[in-house]
Structures are given as structure tokens and as C-alpha cells.
Write a structure and sequence with these properties.
binds flavin mononucleotide; 7 helices; alpha+beta; globular; 4-stranded antiparallel beta sheet; 209 residues; NADH Oxidase
Length: 209
């Protein structure tokens, strides 16, 4: 089913997936959004618990409030670099596209899912959250192969966002996602292009015991 040509193209998909903060002014078709969610739901999950909860943000007021919140949190984070050469560099980075992306989505983990019947989470309950991250990555790749970009925003106070979105108490925020067509394509992370952090040698991150 997966031949060498597919493997090569899949490799290109991985290389050209990007975290996107610059979006073109173009809507994402509803059928594509549905397809992305269908793909995300194919991700593996502990005990097959499928603990992901996707909250599509339809309200412009909520979008504005989230953008203001992230700007505020980012300004606070910038203070951590005060006095360092990285301070100006940090301020020059664009770290979210919340005001431009046509689609915003929050992803939560249901920390008490009925599905799965508790299988696998007695010793590592955090695997529920890992499962949600896998769903996000699946959605990310499914988007990219349709030419749609995704930006993961984490410079936020999860409790504040939880309160803004009024979701059940036993849901934990995993990610705030911006989804839309990227303004440009690249096979290099934007943080690498901007001189913040390049990819490092994989050999430094692989160990043997
Ligand atoms: C868990 C997670 C949180 C992230 N949070 C942010 C964020 O708040 N703002 C941002 O601009 N990028 C964020 N990113 C994107 C990373 O900066 C990006 O993945 C990394 O620089 C590598 O670039 P690439 O995804 O284009 O390969 C996040 C990525 C992950 C996986």
C-alpha cells in the first residue's frame, strides 16, 4: 500500500510541515476542516480513550480576547530576556497568527474519559495528554498535505483560557491552534530562518544504554 514513491513524498511532507504564524487572507473550506478532524481522530490513544476534545472557536470576541491575552503573556515572557541581546530578538519574532488565521481551535484533554475504561492510565495518567498531542500532530500533517498551515500557540495561561472558553473542569488545555493557508512555504523552521534556534544534530539526542 505504501510504496517507495509514497515514502519519499511522506518524507517531503514531514520536511515541509511548518509551524505557521503568517496566514494568507483565504478561508478554509468547511469540508477541509471536517476532513482534518476526521484524520486527527485516527491518532493512537491510551486505552483507545480518544481523550481529545476539539473546541472550534467561532466567536470573533473570543478570538480577540485570546489574541490580547497571548500578546500580554508574550510581553511578560519578553521581560525574562531583559538585559540580554535576545530581548530585542524575542520582540522581533511573530509568535502567533491569532488575528489573521481564518480558523482557531482549542484542543483539550478530557482527564476523565469514559472511553478506554481507565486502561493504561493507572501508572501514567499523562498518557491521556500525550494522546491528544498525537491527534494534533496527525491533524497538522493532514492539514499540510492539503496546503493548509497550522500554528501552535502556547504562550498563554491555560487556566485563563480554560475560563474564557467555559469548558468542563476536568478538561485540560493542550493547545491553541491557528489554522489557515500559509503566506509562504518553507522547509526551514521560522525560528531557524530568524536566527533564534536551528535544528541541532540528531546524533546529540540519541543515546544508548
Ligand atoms: C508544544 C508546542 C508549542 C508551541 N508553541 C508555540 C508558540 O506559542 N508560538 C509559536 O510561534 N510557535 C510555537 N510552537 C512552534 C515551534 O516554535 C516550532 O514547532 C519550532 O520552532 C519548529 O518549527 P517547525 O514546526 O516549523 O518545524 C510550538 C510548537 C509546539 C510543538
Amino acid at each position: 500500500m505504501f510504496d517507495a514513491d509514497f515514502a519519499e513524498r511522506f518524507n517531503a511532507l514531514l520536511r515541509w510541515r511548518r509551524d505557521v504564524r503568517h496566514f494568507a487572507p483565504r478561508a478554509v473550506a468547511e469540508a477541509d476542516m471536517t476532513a482534518l478532524l476526521d484524520c486527527a481522530a485516527l491518532a493512537p490513544s491510551v486505552g483507545n480513550a480518544q481523550p481529545w476534545r476539539f473546541v472550534r472557536l467561532r466567536s470573533p470576541a473570543i478570538g480577540d480576547a485570546l489574541a490580547a491575552h497571548v500578546d500580554e503573556q508574550s510581553a511578560r515572557a519578553a521581560q525574562g530576556y531583559a538585559g540580554q541581546t535576545r530581548h530585542e530578538h524575542y520582540l522581533s519574532l511573530k509568535l502567533h497568527g491569532l488575528r489573521e488565521a481564518p480558523e482557531l481551535m482549542a484542543v483539550f484533554c478530557d482527564d476523565r474519559p469514559e472511553a478506554g475504561h481507565g486502561l493504561g492510565i493507572a501508572t501514567m495518567p499523562e498518557t491521556l495528554r500525550y494522546s491528544c498531542v498525537l491527534a494534533i500532530h496527525t491533524l497538522w500533517l493532514a492539514a499540510r498535505l492539503r496546503g493548509i498551515g497550522l500554528g501552535w500557540v502556547s504562550i498563554l495561561d491555560p487556566e485563563a483560557v480554560h475560563a474564557m472558553l467555559d469548558v468542563p473542569a476536568h478538561w485540560s488545555l493542550i493547545a491553541l491552534l491557528c489554522i489557515g493557508y500559509p503566506a509562504q512555504e518553507s522547509n526551514m523552521p521560522e525560528l531557524e530562518q530568524r536566527g533564534w534556534q536551528a535544528r541541532e544534530p540528531l546524533a546529540d539526542r540519541v543515546f544508548e544504554r
